[in-house]
Amino acid sequence: MAEVIWTEPALQELNAIAEYIALDNPAAARRLVKALFDKTNRLKDFPQSGRIPPELPDSVYREVVAPPCRIFYRVDETRVLILYVMREERQLRTYIFESS
Hints:
Elements: E1 3-6, H1 8-24, H2 26-41, E2 61-66, E3 69-75, E4 79-87
Helix pairs in contact: 1-2
């Protein structure tokens, strides 16, 4: 079983998305945050279950999709590092992962 670790940048992005949604619908923001944590918790048992992002075909990064978000992560021997969260409609900028 792998340990799921959320990085600070991923948590900041999730917080920004949730705050924006909460302006109109606080309950929907809470549901979204819960859904994203539920989705990433399954990575404890199935760390390779996410797909390789289409924009990064030859990378070590993987993603899970929990509409309206994409959650990017990397797996090492014992950990799943949640690196970045973004809205699906945004374009992925690969430089985000260059220092990860």
